[in-house]
């Protein structure tokens, strides 16, 4: 149990710290020095937050900020449900070499048939050709087992790094974490992995969702539904953007207008994605007049159901997706 008086005293002490440095500066500096000097070994557990708060005379919230800074620096890693540990790094020894004539990067994707993947592939190729690198593309065919095998083969066959567009459900998060801990250069695309500090290139999903809902409000809608889709960082951020936009326009969040089907396979959005969710929304006594779908696959499914139920889009109901697929 945290003593409120103790916590208040810590906050007061923090206010006396020289403001040119964050209050957690000494914590970060000390732990980083001990890690770099080998006093804290790879895989060694960092003391719990309350113990660090007492030792450094700062609040637990400041301890968290300091630890998050060390995560960003690649010094430590947080393991959900277990604690914080010194990160294991620089064990990766590629079969190939950056000095060899043949330098290859691997791109692992859910499916090569995805139009989104084609755009990513094109951009990567433009950059690699200038640097005299080749690209190996591996399709996981929307299955977790094949994605895991592809990741392993990338390392075994000499890739100098991996660009990964993970399956929707992030089924292989543990495998990705192992590669990261071994020092394998990794970049994620579109979907980040919680509590894992890996570079990720993605859309600003929260802001994009807010723009979409803002547009629907500008069109005169106030009863706006959402189809959330498979749980992952991208769709979850889009849901947060949806909620933020409603709050911005003083529209109360109505949970009955948020539909999410519990798919048995979280590896990808199913072909029928959006259809069941739209049916649920439209069968309500007071259905939404507009629907924001977390991605275009869901939007296409929602549109099909609306048309089957005799509605005209956008005359009778507005539907907006996310991703701009053609």
Protein model, in words:
The protein has 326 residues and is an alpha/beta fold. It has three domains: 4-86, Arc Repressor Mutant, subunit A; 104-201, Rossmann fold (3-Layer(aba) Sandwich); 205-320, Response regulator (Rossmann fold). It is 41% helix and 13% strand. It has eleven helices and eleven strands. The chain has helices spanning 4-15, 25-36, 49-56, 60-72, 115-130, 144-156, 173-181, 205-218, 233-248, 275-282, 296-308; strands spanning 76-79, 83-86, 104-109, 134-139, 162-164, 186-189, 200-201, 224-227, 258-259, 290-293, 318-320. The chain has a five-stranded parallel beta sheet, with helices on both faces. α7 (173-181) links the parallel β5 (162-164) and β6 (186-189). α2 packs across α4 (60-72), α3 crosses α4 and α10 packs across α11. The longest helix is centred in the middle third of the chain and has 16 residues, at 115-130. The chain is globular, with a radius of gyration of 24 Å. The protein starts with a helix and ends in a 6-residue tail after the last strand.
Concise structural overview:
The chain has 326 residues and is α/β, with parallel strands linked by helices. Helix content is 41%, strand content 13%. The chain contains eleven helices and eleven strands.
Given the C-alpha coordinates, what overall shape results?
A: globular
Number of extended strands: 11
Strand content: 5-15%
Radius of gyration: 24 Å
How many structurally independent domains?
3
CATH names the topology of the largest domain as: Rossmann fold
Q: Helix coverage percent of residues?
A: 40-55%
What is the end-to-end distance? Answer: 55 Å
CATH superfamily of the largest domain: Response regulator
Which residues sit in consecutive blocks of at least 5 with pLDDT less than 50?
4-19
> Helical stretch count?
11
Gross CATH architecture of the largest domain? 3-Layer(aba) Sandwich
Mean pLDDT: 85
User: Main beta sheet: strand number and arrangement?
Assistant: 5 strands, parallel
H/E topology pattern? HHHHEEEHEHEHEEHEHEHEHE
Helix and strand content put the structural class at: alpha/beta
